[in-house]
Amino acid sequence: MSNVEDRVMKAVDAVHRGIFRASRGRAPGRAGSMPVVELTTTGVGDGRERLWSRLTAAHANYAGYQRRTGRPIPVVVLDPVQGRDGSPPTVGA
Questions:
Q1: Which InterPro entries match (predicted)?
Q2: Could you tell me if 47 and 68 lie in one domain?
Q3: pTM above 0.70, yes or no
């Protein structure tokens, strides 16, 4: 990615984050039928390193991408949430 492309992507990201925060997550709140969320934390410390090692062992392209970028690539762990009756919750309910 060129410096110009990188600056454009960072500017678009900044505008998107501004809109998302100003609307308190309501706009853009959906991408098609999927809800849009903003991740505000990344994995850190030993836990991230352990997971990152597993990810790059399974998918070597992530290690190559990490070498080309100046930022740590986030490792996000999502835990399923269950409704009170044990079933998955309804999105947007």
A1: F420H2_quin_Rdtase, Split_barrel_FMN-bd
A2: yes
A3: no
The percent of residues in the chain predicted with pLDDT above 90, rounded, is: 3
DSSP code of residue 35? E
pLDDT digits 0-9 by tens, 22-49: 877 666 666 667 666 666 555 666 778 8
Our CA angle for 29, 62, 44, nearest 5°, is 70
Q: How far is Cα 42 from Cα 13, in angstroms, rounded to an integer?
A: 17
Cα(90)–Cα(93) distance, integer angstroms: 5
Residues paired with 30 in a beta bridge: 35
For the chain, the C-alpha Rg in angstroms (whole number) is: 17
Domain that holds residue 26: 12-41
